[in-house]
Design goal:
Blueprint (H helix, E strand, L loop, with lengths): L4 E2 L12 E6 L5 E7 L2 H9 L7 H9 L2 E6 L3 H15 L6 E2 L7 E5 L6 E4 L7 E4 L5 H14 L11 H5 L7 H4 L13 H15 L4 H16 L3 H21 L9 E8 L3 E10 L2 E11 L6 H15 L6 E3 L12 E3 L4 H42 L8 E10 L2 E11 L2 E2 L5 E4 L8 H19 L6 E5 L2 H13 L8 E5 L4 E3 L14 H35 L6 H11 L2 H6 L2 H8 L1 H11 L2
Parallel strand pairs: 9-12, 12-13, 14-18, 18-19
Antiparallel strand pairs: 1-4, 2-3, 2-4, 5-11, 6-7, 6-8, 9-10, 10-11, 14-15, 15-16, 15-17, 19-20
Length: 597
């Protein structure tokens, strides 16, 4: 059944009912999914000019070409449907919850003598899954506890009654270590084995009181029967369980199951922490990051995170504690903001986790930025620059005996090549092999264009060459009245010496320094770029000469063919008809006959 479809101008036809609305762009792509108590009012707020919506939302509204909606019974149903649609389609204007990893589960298998083992693949037919766990460490702690308390097999054998009766298996080392009672040889019946499985199931559900009662009663029964060795064993298991519970116990163990959420927000991101509480103990702690798209209020972000995380971690807790006031809780979701007592302590603990996550992210971002800027900071220090050389430009000339004189300019930003800003130059005003004059011309042309277009100047200019080329570049900067506004250096090839304008002696930079290696890398890139350009020009010139030796074929015809076919090899492969399309039948015949003679 197709959903009703409306144009943006037809939003008034939407019903006054709760539901989920979907916006599509002109390509038919889903760009936003939203929920509403009242579809007509909520969707209408986007298209009301007096609604005071922000600039980001206005940008989205301009893209909307089609509206679809689905009516549901309650706002909570709308929340769930919205969550499912966002997970499935990930529209570009919806909040992103940055957490796409697969979480581990513990599987209690559906087979004779069930096993418990970790997995990340959920196949319901295999058995009952417990989790997901926020970390492998947390999962392993629970699994280790269960294997310490109960004799549960870890082998993968098919322990059907027929195979055990047929004596297909032999007991392994686990039996001799006391970790298994040997059901593979019929040394333990399944009903006895399933008693341990039932207690393990209680632990996996977070209900520790039943296994504790079991071990306490067993200990007392063994002591009454004067079996003190067995009583001591049950006592150790009881204490192990108590110790495990004490580690995670944060409030009164009589407190029922509940979820705790807190949000810490900044301009572009929000951080939400989720604590799952069972019998007063934390059984799960998870912090996620949400990227804001439309300047969503914190209440909306938190509600989004609550629905997604409860769905992801399969929570069915009826009470949800939050750190924000909500005017109206959605039907089916009991939200409360405690002011005092144990529940308030849980909110404070959750907030502490969210703030810690935010702090760690900021520190990590700072470390990444510092690592990235380390070389530039070192270069700034070595060259005594007043500002960080974020934007560096380097010039190089290339010519062989004055033929095809060219120059290149390469641009590095943030210590990396910015190839879209590379430039080639044909030398226009200089005759013959004059590197100094050629350098002055290209530097003048580059920064005259920059100034005319109103673009920003680089933080550092590097000239590939010694004092002569550097002086020529300085002359160009002086003529533009920007000398000393931009630092400029020359790097001489022979000894990798760095010169500043007017200095008689080069400055010394450690040959192993990262800053010198960066300058060398930039210089080598400029040289490569210039040489490649020059080689291509000479190649085209040679190809043109080969064609112009043919009687009746001039330079214009040769250039036209080279421009279309790109190389003499492609011209040789071309058919007579292909050549005729470009230069006519007469010239095409001459070229075809010469190249194939």
């Amino acid at each position: 059944m197709l959903s009703p479809s409306y144009l943006p101008s037809e939003y008034q036809q939407l019903p006054d009912l709760p539901g989920v609305y979907r916006y599509y762009n002109k390509e038919g792509l889903l760009i936003y999914v939203g929920k509403a108590k009242n579809l007509k009012k909520r969707v209408g707020s986007y298209f009301n000019k007096n609604a005071g919506i922000n600039q980001k939302t206005r940008r989205m509204v301009k893209e909307i070409q089609k509206i679809e909606f689905t009516i549901v019974n309650s706002e909570f149903d709308a929340l769930l449907l919205e969550n499912n649609l966002i997970k499935k389609s990930q529209p570009k204007y919806n909040v992103l919850l940055k957490d796409d990893k697969t979480y581990p589960y513990l599987l209690l298998t559906k087979e004779p003598f069930p096993r418990i083992y970790p997995t990340r693949r959920v196949i319901p037919s295999k058995g009952t899954y417990f989790g997901p766990f926020a970390s492998v460490k947390a999962m392993n702690n629970v699994l280790d506890l269960i294997l310490s308390l109960f004799t549960i097999r870890t082998c993968k054998l098919d322990l059907s009654a027929e195979k055990i009766k047929a004596s297909n298996y032999k007991i392994c080392l686990e039996y001799h270590l006391g970790n298994c009672k040997g059901p593979c040889e019929g040394l333990q019946d399944e009903s006895n084995y399933l008693k341990d499985i039932e207690q393990a199931r209680n632990i996996l559900k977070g209900n520790l009181s039943l296994p504790k009662t079991h071990f306490k009663e067993s200990m007392q029964a063994a002591a009454s029967a004067l079996d003190f060795e067995k009583a001591q064993l049950y006592k150790e298991k009881f204490e192990l369980l108590e110790k495990y519970q004490a580690k995670s116990l944060v409030i009164n163990p009589n407190v029922d199951s509940l979820d705790v959420f807190s949000i810490v927000s900044e301009e572009k991101y929000a951080f939400v922490n989720y604590l799952r509480i069972k019998n007063g103990a934390i059984t799960l702690s998870k912090t996620v990051e949400l990227k804001k798209k439309l300047d969503e209020p914190d209440q909306e972000l938190l509600l989004t995170a609550i629905v997604r995380l409860r769905d992801q971690f399969q929570s069915d807790a009826k009470e949800v504690l939050v750190n924000l006031e909500f005017e109206d809780s959605p039907d089916g979701l009991q939200l409360s903001l405690p002011k005092i007592g144990d529940k308030r302590k849980l909110i404070d603990l959750s907030l502490k986790n969210a703030l810690y996550y935010k702090k760690e992210k900021a520190l990590l971002a700072g470390e990444t930025k510092n690592k990235k800027n380390r070389v530039l900071l070192q270069l700034q220090k070595d060259l005594s620059l007043t500002e960080l050389p974020y934007h560096i430009e380097c010039f190089d000339n290339s010519n062989i005996q004055g033929s095809n004189p060219v120059a290149s300019m390469v641009c590095f930003k943030d210590g990396k090549p910015s190839k879209k800003e590379y430039r080639h130059y044909h030398i226009k005003t200089v005759t013959g092999p004059n590197d100094f004059a050629s350098m002055e011309e290209v530097v003048l042309r580059r920064y005259k264009r920059i100034l005319n277009d109103g673009f920003s100047l680089p933080n550092l200019i590097v000239i590939d060459g010694g004092k002569g080329q550097l002086s020529s570049a300085v002359a160009a900067l002086k003529s533009l009245d920007i000398y000393k506004k931009v630092p400029i250096i020359g790097i001489a090839k022979r000894l990798e010496e760095i010169y500043f304008p007017g200095d008689h002696y080069p400055i010394f930079i450690d040959k192993k320094s990262e800053s010198l290696r960066l300058i060398q890398r930039i210089r080598d890139e400029a040289h490569r770029f210039a040489i490649t350009f020059h080689r291509n020009l000479r190649s085209k010139g040679a190809l043109g000469t080969q064609l112009t030796t043919i009687e009746g074929i001039g330079e214009n015809t040769a250039n036209k063919l080279l421009s279309h076919f790109k190389s003499i090899k492609n011209i040789e492969k071309a058919t007579l008809e292909d050549l005729s399309d470009q230069v006519g039948k007469d010239k095409a015949s001459k070229i075809f006959n010469r190249l194939h003679s």
